[in-house]
Amino acid sequence: MSELVVCGLNYHDIPVAIRERFTIPESCLKHALEGLKNFPHVKEAVLLSTCNRTEVYAVVSNVAAGWREIDAFFDSVQTIAHHGALKPNFRLLREDVALHLFRVASGLDSMVLGEGQIMSQVKTAHQEALQAGTAGAVMDSLFKFALTCGKRVRTETSMARKAVSISSAAVELGKSLLGSYNRQTVLVLGAGKMGQICLKLLLSDGKARVIAANRTKERLESFKQNKIRNIEKLEILEDFDMRHKAAAEADLVIVASAAPQYLLRADLLQEARANQKVLNVIDISVPRNADPAIAELLDAHYFDSDHIGNIVKENRAERQSLVAEAESIVFEVLKEFQEWQRTLFLVPTIAELREKIESIRIEHINRVCNARSVAEGEEAQNELEEISRAIVNQILHHPTTQLKATNDYEILRQQAEALRTLFNLGPRKSSLVKQ
Known about the structure:
Number of strands: 10
Order of helices and strands: EHHEEHEHHHHHEHEHEHEHEEHHHH
Radius of gyration: 29 Å
Number of domains: 3
Shape: elongated
Helix content: 40-55%
CATH topology of the largest domain: Beta Polymerase, domain 2
Largest sheet: 6 strands, parallel
Number of helices: 16
CATH architecture of the largest domain: 2-Layer Sandwich
CATH class of the largest domain: Alpha Beta
């Protein structure tokens, strides 16, 4: 019997120093999904790996065996992205899996309440699994419902208007460190999604000197073609190897890149300091791309994504009023998903039960009709046909009504399986086949 499960780790209980060891780069997702697909009890799988979480959503043929195999997958993450072997910190079953994912997609489980980037990350996880052939009927529907839920929360509530991202929180933290951005120099390392958000916010303020550095200048040149307020003021660091010198001279450095190693090293940064100017470094990358040892340098202030999360929590109360409104949508979509799940048991079970009894009816009708003489006529046969159909419908009415009236998913499944056993229908024909 297939079961829906999720297990993994996230920012709630696991610090960034450990989370970063589990982060699977997008370029490695296909390889990771192929590894999951090779486990015998994992029938479907989707892998969601972001700055704040690495979670495996799966359909397994046996819960205990499936969890052991997913644990083994996390052990093997070290071979995928050169990480140490660690264990997931949470596990959920059945409806709790859907509820968790719907809250994740809606931004309700984010470090920054309502942040929008998670929607694109959930969509990417879904698409990668479809392309890898690990998302079957259940995972495909689960993630489609999740994306619908996230979209509804953002369009039907005030969550999107009130939400902030990790990037915007970093820019706000930088402003509080400097007092203001008036004529201050800010260096942004990285030109991915988070880095570009930081650049847009800094440029919109219009008062800071903003310098961008990226391993490939082409991405920054492309970014400069966008119609963004004050984009003409953006400076590009021509030589990426000069980033430590540029960082030492800046008033604030925001690191938002996706390198597999530190782009900002404490020793090289110290060497580049011509004086003991105060260092302010905010690293929102996961894995971290700024050496945490920077915090140990004289007159240095170092912050990573967990520090930002703590700061955001202090301002979370003003957005809590939005949660109830969003949660009501989450539970509406959860009910719709549960109804879809019910059809997985109802439709084939009822159809096969009716087919089985109908075959018995036809067999006996034919036997009786063959025994009778043709002289008895077609009218008598039609009457017999009508009576037998009425008996079949009467027999099937109660179990069919009972199944349709059952709201508890687990009870429904037990009832459906009991019917299959009692009427010898055989194993349920499922779309949850391993691909």
